[in-house]
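Note on ligand handling. Small-molecule inputs were canonicalized before submission; formal charges were left as drawn, and no protonation-state enumeration was performed. Where a ligand contained multiple stereocentres, the stereochemistry in the source SMILES was retained. For pyridoxal-5'-phosphate, this procedure yielded the string shown in the input block below.
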Amino acid sequence: MLDSKKFYSKLGNMYPPSSMNSILLPKPGVKMIRFTGGSYDVPSLPMAEVKKIFEDASPAAWAEMLQYGGTAGMPSLLNELSKFMAGHKIKADPGNEIIVTTGSQEAIDLVSRVFIDKGDNILIGAPTYLQALSSFRAQYPKFVDIPIDAEGMNTQVLEEKAKKLKAQGKRAKLLYIIPSFQNPDSSLMTMERRKTVLELAEKYDFIIFEDNPYGYISFEGPMPTPLAGIDKSGRVMYTSTFSKMVSPGMRIGWITANPDFTGHMIEAKNNISICNDGLSQYAAAELFRRGDVERQIPKVTKVYRKKRDVMLEAMETSWPRKAKWEEPKGGLFLWVKLPRGFDTDALLNDSVARGVAFVPGSLFFSKPVHNYLRLNYSLPSEEDIVTGIQALGRLLKEKLQ
Ligand SMILES: *Cc1c(COP(=O)(O)O)cnc(C)c1O
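Structure output:
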């Protein structure tokens, strides 16, 4: 037998196949109600719109789609992204301040590679997005946890931690933040705190990486203004994505930053993927140009608000009192707190045995925390939401007696 262990790099060793993935991935022939990933509502996917775009494409368009393109992205898409962001106060020059990425995940990876060295102090939310945590981990930083409450990241603690680092002759280098309907807890950061974060970045000289996949999925009013729409200093890098608002399968994400930062990230991207998929970029540019994106966002938001309501209603009627949650004002997830000492990692096995899957909260913390779980309501049908929530409620009642 090949002794495979001895061949892995230090980084490769950090990627043992996880049992979580095998639990959470769909298995053919097994009926499982999934409250797991942030997948799109299937009937709402823009199938007819994308089909029409390809039917209409000219020979010149096909040539552009099937050829190598620039690393930063297809010019027509960069222009559309610049216009789209201008609609929420973010100024970004399509010539040198935007990079199209393979989902926001590639943007996160670019930031990890270009800005994080071993031992750097990286400020993150507790909890925060698990796929960002694992990407940053590959560079061996020190995580500095900042608590998240119903008003988003606690800026008072943020200042205390930045100040403490400074007093020790160290510095906080980068803050990763999801201000609007953050994954996993759907908290919404207040405007006051948003302004404070930008002031603290100036005062303590750190940069900010803002991740905004969910701001568009707002159930009460327009999208809250992103930090990148308020920033004047060039300290904010901003990523968003088609994944939650249009289609995750197209793998269209983007990052905008000052031209110096994007210049470095373009070189890094060239080593990873050379350029994004032309078919997908062309379709994305056309979806913007034809107004399909502007129509799609309110359409899918309405579907998600209804599903959120169905989930909340089922939880209120069938879940034990000891489980606590806030009503999400946007996004795709409900975040549930269970009594201290309760272990949702252990609960998952029992839950899966009864045909219901969720994501244990421990995955969203840099340190061990086990009494939370995350529920997704965008993918399952309303009927499955009720059935699955009732089954999980019965299980929780048994475990919480
Ligand atoms: C879903 C999600 C993303 C998007 O990832 P893609 O690579 O664009 O599919 C990014 N950040 C957060 C916080 C997310 O929840």
